Amino acid sequence: MTLPPNFGRAVDLSSLGKPKPEPAGPMPGMEITPQNLTEEFLALSKSKPVILICWSPRSPESEEVVAVLGKLASADQGAWILGRVDVDAQPQVAQALQARAVPFAVAIINEQMVPLFEQPYPEAQIRMVVDKVLALAAEQGVGDAPAEKIEPEEEEALTALDAGDYAKAEAAYKKLLARKPGDSFATLGLAQTQLLARTDGLDGAKIMQDAISSPDELEIQMQCADIEVVSGYLEPAFGRLLRLIQLLDGPEQKRVKDRLLELFALVDPADPRVIKARAALANALF
Fold it and tell me: Is residue 184 located within the same domain as residue 68?
């Protein structure tokens, strides 16, 4: 990784609040400085993937992401290395990593920088990102890919899906989530199953035509968004629901917002289309 010429330039964090008191216990991960970033962590990234998280004591959300990553790093038992960058104390490092906000996460694999995400996400989605980093690193000969482990409920769900029994598959994923709250595979599997159940038997061409002729018909628009996601047209689907959220209020707005969040769960949280749509959702609601 080549550090840019403006390595010493500070990061603009003027939108953050006043610094919070120091956390009660030690924060997970190793503190990154300009020296150990270039002298130690780049070399370490040749043997294990490195994930760096930029945070600020003025951002509680970023502290929560540091804690989540620390929990995942402990669970993975040294499969990857966690480093943390206090952007207030180390603005040069934040600038070198091209952090524009906190939290901001980036991976380093074999000395190559891979941006991950730049806003807070639930633990299940961060788990998916970490697993993808491990898999990508393994493809490049760095570290080992995450071991695949199938839970009995997941096996039950997959068998039900093969038989076209969406209700049984949904029940199996919900059972797994009750036993392992926040499990990333169960969360994704449930969202996929519910989408398949909603679109099963629908005439996609007719629904998309109906959506054009009835732009304010809530049910038709939500069905059309589902069809678009199944077909791979993420941006039109997100835009369709965001438009409804701006027009509606009360329970109907909440229903559309919940559906949009369900569709987000089907996509890599680092996907720029999801990042853009999440920002638009925040603007529409607040």
Answer: no
Residues in the chain predicted with pLDDT less than 70, given as ranges, are 1-25, 147-148
Residue 174 lies in a domain: yes
Q: Indicate the pTM of the whole model.
A: 0.52
Cβ-in-10-Å burial (0-12, 13-18, 19+) of 169 comes to: buried
For residue 11, what pLDDT is reported?
40
Q: What angle do CA 168, 170, 175 make, to 5 degrees?
A: 95
- Read off the CATH number of the domain in which 76 is found: 3.40.30.10
Host domain of residue 52: 30-139
Task: Look at residue 25 in the predicted model and tell me its pLDDT.
Answer: 60
For residues 179 and 80, state if they share a domain: no
